[in-house]
Write a sequence for this structure.
């Protein structure tokens, strides 16, 4: 719900219960009790109140940017379609009211 | 005041609440002086003596923990007072005083360590400690050690914090948030490791360089201690009745400080600094003052970060690079946020 | 000073401009004001922090609903914590809860009055404190939604010392959306679901909601690009009349959520009815410890004397507080007669002004809906 910050796993404790995580300038120990899948060194994890709550699959980072671009593309395509429709409607109007409506 | 009519911790935190307390209670002490007195609520006071100004300031230090990465309460005590004098334009301190209140049981070794720090800082600043006072209170009656320092200096021209005009540029002498984050992380045992180090240092030499380069075009100065850069910008904007537009992307922040702030949900702009100054400069002189700062070892990361504007006098607008918003006046000690 | 954040900090100004441009076109094409709601204080913070509202189209209204877990924590719950501090326990709390007023006092007041109140960043810190002080009773005032409750659950399941107990004020996020959707007066056309709660619960739980209420739901992350992309997607869903759930935060959110975390959550907590501050009864809004955990439940361990707290000063101003209406998205902070006058961040009357994620606080701090397009 709140303040989840991503970091990179530097090392994992022997009992596997905690990890030393790098937040791009500071490090913090996080507990691994509730992370969704096992983590390994080099993984990204999402921190919330001192617990890792998610392993962020590395490929997801690139895929997120792709998702944004996809949303942008669909919005643009929607605009283009709207343009086409508007164009057709305008053309229909120009042709005059000869479609049989009284 | 809190619901129970008592002083709360927020009243010492450097923000709005503390200003309110000072205005409501302590301004009653003010009386007219030939110069800049209590009612100006500036970093220090300036009294006319002949054709010069006598600048005086005092500070009490209660920082905990007393030893922190980058410094300690001794260095803080000397730097804080030297810097307050410098913020008024008095960069050659004549003398400092030092009064100490100790708790029974305070380790003598720690006291010697604090003394050594004070001596080192005093030498860096060229500010001799000439007199003092010593008190000891019973165990539990005071928290470890309280240091008070006062400083005096003479100068020819006083620079207040109220001199901004529309169009003036605002500079900061280096990275922000260093001191507050170093102390906070240590104090609250937040379990964050990283190279977080206080920037505590006397900066009178740095300020002297700026004044030499800018002369009368340096029109406002203040050091961003409690309440950080945000607090200072509000003061400067409020006293001069101008707005301030701050370019967030231009404000220097160390990677470690930025990371710690992200993790804890704290804005580096409201975090305390103890070795930095915010300087208001007429637009024509901004570049040469910046160059003078950057040429000094303590000013390598100086930057021009803002401008005084006509809109919204007394308020600070932050350009985030993605949008704009108002920058709040800080209220109380920043707390790590979860939700 | 460049920081090596770029990989996971989606803050690229160029993409942001593209997204806001597309958003403007979509909203213009809709030809009416669109009202969308989010239910997460951190989303409001992200929008406010980066100044995104100044970049949103004017006919787009992104309203904050009851998504601040501190704001919806009711006065009796705060009174319980204050009473425990007065009764000699060391009460540990997350920072945001410190200044929330109960009937007359906050934990900050209790601290000023000499009570032992500690701000912690993690529940494990509170447990460590209990271990360090075996002679004291240490009570963790557990606030936050289920994202935070899983941490409390994990800690209890891994064993705590005898002098440690939990006073649960945890809340359950899906109830926030239910509450708003049941109000006849709202005209919310789409919801933005809280990304980190969804990391735990999964986005599947919103499908029945979307179908029942016939409103689209997007799950959004908290970086500026996450928010902009999700809002854009939601506007498109609204315009297309599609009542679906779309996950715009796939790097953290899956359909099923975080299985291990959910298992622990439900082993320790149960969803119960309770009062949400300003909103009154919310049938499935609170998380309370299951009976098996009575031995660490502060409400069972102690006789909590809330009557002894704070004497007689009944806050008259509270009668004028409209936090509940604001949290339901039916009024704005500026509609409240107390806003900015008697109710300010340094002297809050209502909960929305206390928490850094309360809409009134955020509006006050950022000067209202910042419309800073025309700045010299």
């Amino acid at each position: 719900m709140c303040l989840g910050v991503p970091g990179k796993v530097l090392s994992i404790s022997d009992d596997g219960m905690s990890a030393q995580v790098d937040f791009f300038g500071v490090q913090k120990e996080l507990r691994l009790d509730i992370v969704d899948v096992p983590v390994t060194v080099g993984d990204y994890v999402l921190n919330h109140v001192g617990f890792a709550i998610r392993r962020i699959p590395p490929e997801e980072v690139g895929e997120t940017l792709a998702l944004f671009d996809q949303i942008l593309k669909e919005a643009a395509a929607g605009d283009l379609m709207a343009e086409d429709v508007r164009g057709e409607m305008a053309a229909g109007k120009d042709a005059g009211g000869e479609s049989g409506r009284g | 005041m809190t619901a129970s009519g008592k002083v709360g911790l927020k009243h010492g935190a450097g923000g709005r609440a503390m200003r309110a307390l000072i205005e409501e209670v302590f301004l009653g002490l003010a009386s007219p002086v030939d110069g800049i007195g209590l009612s100006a609520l500036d970093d220090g006071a300036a009294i006319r003596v002949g054709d010069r100004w006598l600048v005086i300031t005092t500070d009490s230090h209660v920082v905990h923990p007393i030893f922190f990465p980058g410094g300690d309460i001794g260095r803080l005590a000397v730097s804080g007072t030297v810097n307050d004098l410098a913020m008024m334009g008095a960069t050659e301190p004549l003398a400092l005083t030092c009064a100490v209140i100790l708790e029974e049981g305070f380790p003598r070794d720690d006291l010697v360590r604090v003394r050594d720090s004070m001596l080192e800082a005093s030498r860096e600043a060229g500010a001799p400690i000439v007199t003092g006072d010593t008190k000891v209170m019973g165990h539990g009656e005071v928290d470890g050690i309280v240091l008070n320092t006062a400083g005096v200096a003479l100068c020819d021209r006083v620079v207040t914090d109220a001199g901004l005009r529309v169009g003036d540029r605002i500079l900061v002498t280096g990275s922000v948030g260093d001191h507050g984050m170093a102390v906070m992380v240590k104090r609250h045992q937040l379990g964050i490791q990283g190279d977080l180090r206080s920037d505590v240092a006397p900066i009178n030499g740095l300020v002297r360089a700026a004044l030499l380069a800018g002369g009368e075009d340096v029109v406002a100065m203040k050091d961003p201690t409690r309440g950080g850069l945000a607090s200072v910008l509000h003061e400067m904007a409020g006293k001069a009745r101008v707005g301030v537009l701050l370019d967030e992307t231009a404000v220097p922040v160390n990677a470690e400080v930025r990371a710690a702030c992200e993790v804890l949900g704290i804005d580096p702009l409201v975090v305390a600094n103890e070795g930095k100054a915010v300087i208001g400069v007429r637009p024509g002189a901004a570049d040469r003052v910046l160059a003078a700062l950057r040429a000094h070892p303590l000013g390598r990361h100086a930057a021009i970060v803002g401008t005084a504007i006509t809109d919204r006098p007394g308020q600070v607008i932050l350009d985030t690079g993605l949008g704009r918003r108002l920058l709040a006046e800080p209220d109380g000690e920043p707390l790590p946020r979860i939700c | 000073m460049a920081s090596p954040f770029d990989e996971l900090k989606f803050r690229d100004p160029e993409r942001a401009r593209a997204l806001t441009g597309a958003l403007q076109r979509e909203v213009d094409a809709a030809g009416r004001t669109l009202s969308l709601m989010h239910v997460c204080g951190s989303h409001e913070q992200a929008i406010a922090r980066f100044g995104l509202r100044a970049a949103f189209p004017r006919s787009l209204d992104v309203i904050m609903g009851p998504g601040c877990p501190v704001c919806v924590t009711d006065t009796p719950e705060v009174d319980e914590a204050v009473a425990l501090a007065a009764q000699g326990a060391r009460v540990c709390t997350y920072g945001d809860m410190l200044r929330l007023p109960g009937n007359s006092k906050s934990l900050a007041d209790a601290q000023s009055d000499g009570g032992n109140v500690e701000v912690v960043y993690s529940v494990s810190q509170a447990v460590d404190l209990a271990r360090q002080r075996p002679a004291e009773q240490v009570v963790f005032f557990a606030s936050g939604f289920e994202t935070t409750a899983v941490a409390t659950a994990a800690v209890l399941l891994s064993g705590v010392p005898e002098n440690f107990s939990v006073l649960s004020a945890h809340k359950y996020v899906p109830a926030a959306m239910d509450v708003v959707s049941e109000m006849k007066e709202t005209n919310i056309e789409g919801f933005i679901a809280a990304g980190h709660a969804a990391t735990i619960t999964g986005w599947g739980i919103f499908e029945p909601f979307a179908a029942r209420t016939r409103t689209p739901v997007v799950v959004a992350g908290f970086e500026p690009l996450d928010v902009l992309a999700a809002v854009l997607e939601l506007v498109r869903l609204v315009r297309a009349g599609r009542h679906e759930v779309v996950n715009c935060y796939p790097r953290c959110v899956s359909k099923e959520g975080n299985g291990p975390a959910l298992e622990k959550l439900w082993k320790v907590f149960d969803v119960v009815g309770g009062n949400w501050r300003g909103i009154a009864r919310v049938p499935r809004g609170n998380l309370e410890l299951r009976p098996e955990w009575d031995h660490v439940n502060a409400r069972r361990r102690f006789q909590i004397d809330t009557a002894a707290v704070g004497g007689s000063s009944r806050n008259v101003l509270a009668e004028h507080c409209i936090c509940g209406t604001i949290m339901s998205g039916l009024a704005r902070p500026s509609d409240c007669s107390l806003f900015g006058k008697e109710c300010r961040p340094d002297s809050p009357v209502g909960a929305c002004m206390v928490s850094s994620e309360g809409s009134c606080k955020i509006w006050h701090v950022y000067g209202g809906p910042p419309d800073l397009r025309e700045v010299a």
Summary: The two ends of chain B are 26 Å apart (CA to CA). The first helix of chain B runs from residue 16 to 24. Chain B touches chain A through 18 residues (CB under 8 Å).
